[in-house]
Every structure is written in structure tokens, then in C-alpha cells.
Amino acid sequence: MADYLQAQVDAGHRIGGGECAHLASEALRVAGGDFTRSGEAQGTSDYRWSSHLVARLTKYGSSAGKIFEVGDIAQYDDVTFRGDDDAKPMHHTQVVAAVDSHGAITEVFEQNSNGHRVAERHPLRNLESIEGGTVSIYRPEPRARQPGRWEYTTVNDTDAPCTYTLQIGARIWNVTLDKANTEGSYRVSFASFSGGAGPGPIPTIKIGNASVQIEDGAGYELYSISKGQVAIRKI
């Protein structure tokens, strides 16, 4: 995860649609981790990144003595800090970039921090100054392949909303992504098949004259080609 994210920082790239959570999802996907936040209650704002909760920090819960690792994911839910009386409660996602010799977090990868919708690396704010809300630190877990299920991500990197078709056998769904650099331009998805003998049909994404067969754990980009046409490719 750290190698992938550092490369994006060095290149000044936007990850996914530029949201903070997109950075963590894509880093997990590229590294072979569970990137779907499976088991999370629908509609929650307190994202659950794995079943391995390393620490849950509050005003009364110190991070002192806890050992964190590069690649851990920090999820902020309605967090405020002492001395920031006018600041809005923070809902944010970070990935640990560095720890000191005692396992304390010193630097993080993040995106959409202070309106900067590209991957960046920053020193960590002092977690001992939490006044309200919670910071949950999760340790990534490897993703297990599930027969008949394909997990993947898509991102629209064109300047207009795009609709692609997901097809599994005779079943067809239309999926619309918002224009580039918006929350709705990135999507974590799965396609599944059950019933019948054998592995079943391979899902296909189609847009215009372009189509690709979905590979489990892959990411796909919608991009502009000549004469306003849109194509799709694996990234």
C-alpha cells in the first residue's frame, strides 16, 4: 500500500474521484487487501475498513503505548480537536505512511485534505488532542476470492457523466458515474453469479464500442478518445 501511495504522491496523481476514502480503497485493492468494506452497515459515515480494529481513540482514550504499522487505516468520525473551536467535525480517512521506533504514527497519506484532491503525504496531527468524536485505526486484511463473485472498481476520468453497461450472461445493468474529480465518479462494485453448473459467465463492462471482461480485484477507467468517444481500460 505504501509503495503504491508514495508513487501517486510523487506523481501528483488524483486517486479515484479525489475523495479521501478513494485513496484507501484503491491502495487496498492494488495491494491485494479487502477493499469492499464488507460487513459495514449501509449508510454509515464511520467506515469500517476491516475486522481488525487496532485502536479506537476518543477524548478519553490515549494512543500512547499502542503499536501501529505502515498501511494501517485511520478513520475519523465527527472528530474535533482542542483549540479548534470553530472547526467543523472531521470525517476523514488516512493511511499510515510512517511510524517511529515505538510504533507511534508520524506521517500519513491522505487526499481531499484542505481541498487538495490529489494524493499527499503529511505529518500526523496529535491524536492526544481529540476533543470529540472517534478515530478508529484498522489493520488491512487480505482479500479472499469468492467463487462466482468479482470485486472491482471503476473511475470516470472524462469531463462528463458516463453510463456503462454491466452484463452477466443475459442480465444487464446500467451504471452511471459522475464526471471526473467528484465523489460519484468512483465506485467500488461487485458482480456475482449463482446457479447452474460450472463457474458461470464472466461479467463484462461495455461502453460505446468498447468492452472488457472483469477480472476479480481489478480496477477500470473510463477515458476519452477521439471525437468525444469514451473507452474503458484496466488500470
Would you write up a description of this structure?
The protein has 235 residues and is mostly beta strands. The protein has 2 domains: 2-138; 149-234, Immunoglobulin-like. It contains 2 helices and 14 strands, in the order ααββββββββββββββ. It has helices spanning 2-11, 20-31; strands at 53-57, 73-81, 90-99, 105-110, 120-123, 130-138, 149-156, 162-168, 171-177, 186-192, 204-207, 210-213, 219-224, 230-234. A hairpin with a 5-residue loop joins strand 13 (219-224) and strand 14. The longest helix has 12 residues, at 20-31. The radius of gyration is 19 Å and the shape is globular. It starts with a helix and ends with a strand. The mean pLDDT is 93.
What number of domains?
A: 2
Q: Give the SSE order as H and E letters.
A: HHEEEEEEEEEEEEEE
Unreliable sequence segments: none
Total DSSP helices: 2
Class by alpha and beta content: mainly beta
Sheet of most strands: 6 strands, antiparallel
Indicate the percent of residues in helices: under 10%
Tally of extended strands?
14
Q: What oligomeric arrangement do these chains adopt?
A: single chain
Q: What do the pLDDT scores average to?
A: 93
If strands are numbered along the chain, what order do they take across the biggest sheet?
A: 1-6-2-3-4-5
Radius of gyration: 19 Å
